[in-house]
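Can anyone check this?
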Amino acid sequence: MINEGMVYRQVSLDELEEVARAIVTKLAGTPVWLLYGEMGAGKTTLVKAICDALQVDDVISSPTFSIVNEYQTRGGEKLYHFDFYRIKNEAEAWDIGTDEYFYSGNRCLVEWPEKIPSLIPAEYAALVITIENSTLRTIAISVHDGKEENRI
C-alpha cells in the first residue's frame, strides 16, 4: 500500500482495516461520506471495514433492497448505510427522508450517490474507489465543506 495523504494506492484486502481506521480519523468531523466506484469495486467491503473501525458489532450488509440500514457503535453512535443502486429516481430517496438522515449529524455512508445528485448536502466527503487489478484498489478522498475555495 502507498499512502499519499488523501490517496491510498495499491490497497489490498489485508490492508483495508488499516486504511479504514485512517479514514475514520481523517473524516471525523464530516458526517456524510459518499462512496463512488463501479460495481465490484469494493464499496460495501469498505463500509464493513469502516464499521469495524467504528466498533459496530452488527452484521453489516448492503441495504440494496431496504435502501438504508441503521447500525450502532459500541459507544452508542448511530450510523446509516445507504445503497441507492436500485432506486428509479431521486423521489424514492426523498420519500424515505434522506434529508433528515443527512442533516441528523450522524454518520451516513452512501453507496451510489450519483443516483441522487440534487439531494447531496453541500458538506460531504467523497471516497472514490478505483480497481487497479483483481486484488488491489486505489481509494481517493476529498472533503467538500460547501465552500469552493476550501476544497482539498
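Reply from J.R.: I decoded it. The chain has a mean pLDDT of 91.
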